[in-house]
Amino acid sequence: MQMNSELDNDKFKLLYVIINRGSGSKVLRIAEKHGISSGTIVYGRGTAHTGILAYLGLSDTKKEIVFLASTRQTVLKVLDDLNKELDFSKPNHGIAFSIYINSIKGSKNIIHSNTDEKGSSDSIMYQLITAIVEKGKAEDVVASAEKAGSRGGTVVKARGSGVHETTKLFSMEIEPEKEIVLILAKTDTTENIVNAIKDALKMDEPDGGIVYTQPVDKVFGVR
Q1: How far is the C-alpha of 138 from the C-alpha of 131, rounded, in Å?
Q2: Around 107, how many Cα atoms within 13 Å sit in the side-chain half-sphere?
Q3: What is the pLDDT of residues 76-105, one digit of tens each?
Q4: Which element (helix H / strand E) includes 72?
Q5: pLDDT tens-digit profile of 14-45?
Q6: If we measure between CA atoms, which residue out of 74, 96, 94 comes closest to residue 11?
Q7: Rounded-to-integer distance, Cα 45 and Cα 62, Å
Q8: Which residue from 17, 75, 92, 95 could staple onto 13, CB 3.0 to 4.6 Å apart?
Q9: What's the pLDDT tens digit per position in 120-156?
């Protein structure tokens, strides 16, 4: 079945799975059973203090972040199977959540169903906060976020395609000296956390970094 080159945001979703290093291949195998033939794995590390490990199940250990994209119906099925296989309810078994995608182009391996799927009517309870900062400042992001109510996050190293090359996100250069911090927060705490990060990192100044949020649909592994 031929897939449309651009899909509505109520039909297409991106799945994030944050797990311990070495488990990414298992996630991909489960996704493949549902017709998702490819995904992306990046390395990161968790940042959560001992007293809040029960919340995110993340410690300062090596992590893998798996990105998978498919229709909403397929993503929900994958989430259910992942939860059964990995048991996100247990501490340090990881977290998984999904967000809507406005459009997608060039993903020939993704099957688009003709089913008339509707977006979830559930109220948004969580937001994904993404902060991009200079190398070495990720801990400042996490510290300021925790003071504003965050329970921890995941740090990913970012780099351009070459030593002397850069790539851009929202007009900001992403070089080998950058770090990306992913924080999952309840909606009612998101604004305070974002403002705390912005103020602590002086993001209003040149090269101070950027921070943005995205609504999260389904969440597993957060207690």
Answers
A1: 8
A2: 23
A3: 999 999 999 999 988 888 999 999 876 655
A4: helix 72-86
A5: 999 999 888 999 999 999 999 988 788 888 88
A6: 74
A7: 5
A8: 75
A9: 435 778 999 999 888 889 999 999 999 999 988 899 8
